[in-house]
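Sanity check

After download, print the first record. It should look like this:
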Amino acid sequence: MEPTPKKRGRPPGKKTAEQMGPTVHLVPEVDLLFTAHAKKLKLSKTKYASAAIAYFAENRLDPTKAAAQSFAHVTKTVAQEARSIRVQNVDIGNRLISILRNWEKSLYGFLQQQQGGTLNYLEQIESDILRHQVSVETNYLAPMVEMLVKSNIETYIARVLVERTNLRVQNKEQTEWAGVNKGLNDDRDQQVVVQMREFIKTNNVPAPSLAAKPQVPVLPPKAPATPAAATPDAAVPPQ
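Expected structure tokens:
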């Protein structure tokens, strides 16, 4: 029986030793920082250095300009955030203006209703006062004028009786009564005309009329349905 030939190769459980590249020298300050970060991440210096170099090489980045690019990125980010904040401020301002306009419109409607109710109430009061004046004139002044007219008539009748009695006492003819009565009537009528004209001049009562309504204030402009689009000017971010 022939012996089984052994297969060539590495024994199981053993790994091939990694091929080491050329040696790279580091500045002492960088070596200290590099060692501290590798230890913090629990990586060997070889893996940490290889990964860092591969990252810059694969992305075609220049590590000597990383600080400047980082500053440009921060500046761009700050500019974008500032623009976003300005847009939000404009939107908040538009919303506040819309709320104030709606509140102003509601307040104007409420005040207009109050004004209308007050005017109606005052008109009712004025109408009641005029109605009361008409009632006073109808129930008091008209009967008083009627009584005054009756008194005048009775006075005239009493005058006639007195004059005729006076003529009889003086033994005068009744035919003289017509002339005496006519003279008295003419004198009376003339005095009545003069006194009535003076009374009208000094006691002229104007016709009652309703007070003019005050003008309703102009309706304020309506609030915008939607806030306007905010497009504030922002600084151009650095490239």
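If your output differs, re-run the checksum step. Summary of this record's structure: The helical segments are 28-40, 45-58, 66-169, 176-202.
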